[in-house]
Amino acid sequence: MTNISFNMQGHNMTVVEADGSNVEPFVVKNLFIYSGETYSVLIKADQAPTRNYWIVSKVVARNSTTPNGLAIFNYHPNNPTTSPPTVPPVGPAWNDVEPRLAQCEATKARQGYITPPPHKSDRVIVLLNTQNKINGYIRWSVNNVSFNLPNTPYLIAVKEKLHHVFNQSPPPNGYDHRHYDIFNPPTNPNATTSTSIYKLQFDSTVDIVIQNANALSANDSETHPWHLHGHDFWVMGYGKGKFDIHKDPKKYNLVDPILKNTVSVQPYGWTALRFRANNPGVWYFHCHIEYHLFLGMGVVFEEGVEKLGKLPPSIFGCGDAKVSP
């Protein structure tokens, strides 16, 4: 539901894994973890063994009043319930983007474990994160479209050719990046809703660029962790400000990009990823802050459904699938 900074008082952490991929080790004092991510770190217990130390989990990327999560890092034979003699570390400011971006850029694939990405993509989709209103209610949108799930599951609808159960028009492949001002509230705050999905050519290479923009309130751009079902993707690059579709791809990391399934997009910034559409099915790609997802911040990719075998009758239970054979 949120993004956190994790700190072990007096100890450095060596990051060695992220989302199941080996990381070229790097050292941090604060580890930023976004909703949906996983990390493994190594810690050397080399501090004074005569005391215990605080472990602190702190909300970042949101000016939250939630109290910090606290635990005790116990050095044997000290009593594990004895509080450390010092106050818990304060950690980074909730709105300090620089150390968060630095960690993102430091997360590279471990030498000897690199799976190189394709050097070119077959398709580029740019997704603009915006906060909008529909019928007076606040919603989150992608390219000014707030996503709605249909009553009939997509996998059944596509496989059984139930074309009437969701919008067959393709969703926007991008936005008006030349004229849209990402640093100010949208001039037109109203969005539309849709159930349409992106249909990807099977086994093609797809680039996704996620662009963050100002929300409805001035000087407000949130951090969004995006998670892709059914795939890992290469994190090709991060940037501040508006993504330049002509210049920024030339800076992509083609040497040692990490493979992940969740990636953060920082305020007023962009994140680029690349994946192979080689897993037959229908897959969600969405902000992993759950209420952002429920308010419309997500898209769906369909690839190679025709390659799937006959669907089991036991899954035909929702929407128009109830009457499908």
UniProtKB/TrEMBL annotation:
InterPro entries: Cu-oxidase_2nd, Cu-oxidase_C, Cu-oxidase_fam, Cu_oxidase_Cu_BS, Cupredoxin, CuRO_3_AAO. Keywords: Copper, Glycoprotein, Metal-binding, Repeat, Secreted. Coiled coil: none annotated. SUPFAM superfamilies: Cupredoxins. It is found in: Secreted. It comes from the Eukaryota. GO terms for cellular component: extracellular region. Its main location: secreted. Residues 2-77, 183-304 form the Plastocyanin-like domain. Its cofactor is Cu cation. It holds the Pfam family Cu-oxidase_2. One of its GO terms (molecular function) is copper ion binding. Belongs to the multicopper oxidase family. PANTHER family: L-ASCORBATE OXIDASE, MULTI-COPPER OXIDASE. This is L-ascorbate oxidase. It comes from Rhododendron williamsianum.
